[in-house]
Specification:
Chain B: Its main location: membrane. By secondary structure, chain A is mainly α. Chain A contains nine helices and no strands. Classes of the chains: A mainly alpha, B mainly alpha.
Amino acid sequence: MVRFDTSAALAQIASIVVLLALWAAAAIIVDMRALPAPWLVFATLGELIVSGQAFAPLGETLGRTLAGFALGMVLGTGYGIAAALSRTFRELTLWLLQISIFTPTLILIFLFLISLGRTNLTVIVLVGLVVMPVVGTYIRDAMGDFEDELTEMADSFKIGLRERVTGMYLPFLMPPLLAAGRVAFTLAWKVAFLSEIFGFPNGIGWQVKTGYDIYNIQLLLAWLMLFIFVLLIAEQLMRLAQRRFVKW
Amino acid sequence: MLNAAPVVVGIGLWWTITTFVLVQPRLFPPPQDVLAELLRILSNDGPLGPTYAHAGATLLRLLTAWSIAFVIGTLLGVLAGRRRLVFDFMANPVWIAMSVPSVVWVFILLVLFGIENIVPVSALVLLLTAPVFLGTAEGVRAISKDLLEMCDSYHVRGWQRLTGFYLPSIASYMVANARVSFAYGIRIVLIAEVIGLPNGVGILVAYWSDTLFMAPIVAWGILLTAVGMAVDLLVFGPLQRRIRQESELSR
């Protein structure tokens, strides 16, 4: 088992090394301004972090992402539970859910930023609304499995609602919530970032857009690396939490 | 009936609010304005030339990228499903390709390639390959060991093994992958189109956003959503049902 994990880790590290090598090779072949070498990009990123310039945009984007993510998780979980418990509610919201799943993200971003104004709240609500259907369908399907197994047992033992929520639903929902949370956070982080690229005047996305506008690819890639690193850290944290809960 | 009711109520609310509370047709277009824009789009009339040309360009890009992504994702997915090491090696690049938004890929590719159709298409391919790859790998891993051993003992190898064994065994996964990646594609194709192209719906939507006209944006949104839902419902839905039935019959 341990051997297996090390070979997996080696393969994962090897792929990153190969990617970086390809990037470096491409940077040497292509004109420097069009594609700066990885070490230049990471040097710029280091500078941004050491000088503290990175933290204000990072905080702005992260704050909006987390608020929108929380909103989406709460709405989505609520929707999922309601849809699993009531057939009528599921039928009522079926089309709305379909519509919300298929609406192009760019249309939503333009619509929200312009109609509701460029405020933090707009982005938070937008992120929440994009995240909600994903979490909702996840929880709904997970609850579907749940229904058959345990409800009858709880009924026959005459267990109260409060105990049911804390004793049955929450422990049961934890693994699907964490799985949905991983997908949802990635989505939230991307939508917050995109709405900054398409018009919200601060945060990491705006920095990337500025980098493109002034044709400073090195800066653009440095901010992009920051974007990727944050996502990577979030993913690892969620995975850790997932592993702990599944074991438990 | 129940499905449609909230949508009708929603449109009613939208009309009430935009007619009586937020009376600013440019920023908060009432439904009838959006309908008028919808008809205008359908009659092939728009500010930047014929709308069908833009819609056609967008759909062509989406279909090209989606087909390429489907082929690449499936082939790599089969390899990764068979060999754990390949999967581990692919996991990080796929994750990176998937996590970078398409517009950022467009930024980078534009600088490298200049203004070409290849830019948005390859940005979309990068993003759409990932779900196909992951789904296929999962499907191949789910194939039973007995069947694999049978294949080995009959010396079914190479191309024949791929088309005769792997692809049929994961047919239901393939349809699901196609469905998911198409739905994803139609949601994000516009994001790849806003910058650096002479045509496409993305440009049009950005134009309307810059001039602060919301009605056409909503109209395009409705159109694309409708196309996405129609393809999902009329093409992938029946296809998935049929494949499921067939696999149940053969069991």
